[in-house]
Design a protein that fits this description.
424 residues, mainly beta, Porin, 19 strands, 5% helix, globular, disordered N terminus
Length: 424
């Protein structure tokens, strides 16, 4: 009964945890190879086999339908709208014959004050296993089932879009010797969009990659070759005739390096080439485009930290309509922990996206022209979080995002107040 009460309540005060630390889970023998993780003598709520969480937030979006300046809603409703989001989560893990099985899930609802037709449930469920095979091989197999609203930097055109994604992802690594390992990854992902314009980019993507990793000290060097097949099911004969393919195969080659320079500074860099074909082939694509990324994280003082990144990718399209999308994104984030309970943060970002490997003929369809051009993005975000108790925190954030395409500007202000319960 005591354990059941703890799992249901998730803890109310730290004192309860101290009183129970000697009696919950510790020293329980395993049966049939199955066991919950045992709790150490000095444990906290994150050590419980089942963990609960909850979140409530209210937001105001000044441009809920992502309409350009000079346009208005067609239904007569205000351009700005309030939304409320309630979500509840559960996380657990258990060991079985040397394998660790886990589950992380959240389920919630989004409600609009005016645009009630877009009320929806949202969720994220991730069951999986951290597997080991002998002392040399280990990896993760995880499924993901998600549904979430897209942001202004993730949609094609205007409107409200919910992206639903189902995926199965495997990552694995087998040590060889002297710091060398073989790396093998694969995934299958299905994406559906509720907005008809975004639905043109609905895709089933199968990915497989393999390579070599060399780790020594605080450095890690990895060389990977990857093939991804993107199959678009919503592109009919008319779009095919303009060069928008039903199948696009991405071939990429990446060299990445990660290093923990010291306790306060870490860097990660990546260089690569990506090309596409419209069918499987063992030969190299005729055209290869460069990709790169650079990320750095620096704890300037015990209270101040700085993070920066710059990334250029070539992948399946999300914000434009084409066979592939080239995206560049850079951001700079600053975090200041004023007190043990109060943390301030600020982020600035900029980027652009443009179509690639798409014939010029696609631009002859007038309806597609606005979604084939380069789009620029700019964003500023500031926020503060207050830890009321070890389990409960409140946050306030404000952001401004601007999307610019062919001199058409789409601005959006977003203010969010949230309350989170997370006893771990």
């Amino acid at each position: 009964m005591t354990l059941g009460a703890v799992l249901m309540l998730g803890g109310v005060t730290g004192g309860w945890g101290d009183e129970l630390s000697g009696s919950v889970g510790a020293g329980v023998p395993s049966s049939g190879g199955f066991s919950w993780p045992t709790l150490p003598d000095e444990w906290n709520w994150s050590d419980l086999p089942v963990r609960l969480s909850a979140s409530e937030s209210v937001s105001y979006n000044s441009n809920i339908l992502a309409l350009p300046i000079g346009t208005s809603t067609t239904n007569g409703l205000p351009q700005g709208d309030f939304t409320s989001t309630s979500s509840y989560g559960l996380s657990t893990k258990a060991n079985w014959y040397g394998q660790q099985f886990f589950f992380d899930g959240t389920f919630g609802v989004i409600r609009y004050l005016h645009e009630t037709g877009f009320d929806s449930n949202v969720y994220s469920f991730s069951p999986g296993v951290n597997w080991t095979l002998t002392s040399r091989c280990a990896g993760t197999l995880v499924g993901a089932f998600t549904k979430s609203p897209s942001t202004i930097t993730e949609i094609v055109g205007t409107g409200i879009n919910y992206a639903t994604e189902t995926s199965l992802t495997e990552t694995g690594k087998c040590a060889i010797s002297n710091g060398y390992s073989v790396v093998f990854n694969s995934s299958a992902t299905k994406t559906n969009n509720s907005n008809p314009l975004d639905a043109v980019n609905n895709a089933n993507v199968e990915m497989i990659s393999a390579g070599i990793e060399y780790a020594k000290g605080n450095g890690d060097l990895t060389l990977l070759a990857t093939k991804s097949d993107a199959n678009y099911g919503n592109r009919g004969a008319a779009l095919n005739a303009l060069g928008l393919a039903n199948t696009v195969v991405f071939h990429s080659f990446n060299l990445s390096y990660a290093r923990q320079i010291n306790a306060n500074l870490s860097v990660t860099g990546q260089l690569g080439l990506v090309g596409v074909t419209n069918a499987f082939t063992l030969g190299l694509p005729k055209t290869l485009l460069p990709t790169y990324s650079l990320e750095a994280s620096w704890a300037i003082t015990p209270k101040v930290s700085l993070a920066a990144s710059a990334t250029r990718t070539v992948a399946a399209p999300t914000t434009l309509i084409g066979n592939a999308e080239v995206s560049y994104y850079t951001d700079l984030s600053l975090t200041y922990q004023a007190t043990p309970k109060v943390t301030f943060s600020a982020t600035g970002s900029a980027g652009y996206s443009s179509v690639a490997f798409t014939p010029a003929a696609a631009g002859t369809m007038t309806a597609l022209v606005p979604f084939l051009t380069t789009t620029n993005y700019y964003g500023l975000t500031a926020g503060v979080r207050y830890a009321m108790t070890p389990f409960i925190s409140a946050a306030l954030s404000a952001s401004y995002t601007e999307r610019v395409s062919e001199h058409v500007i789409t601005p959006q202000d977003l203010i969010t107040v949230s309350l989170d319960y997370k006893p771990y």
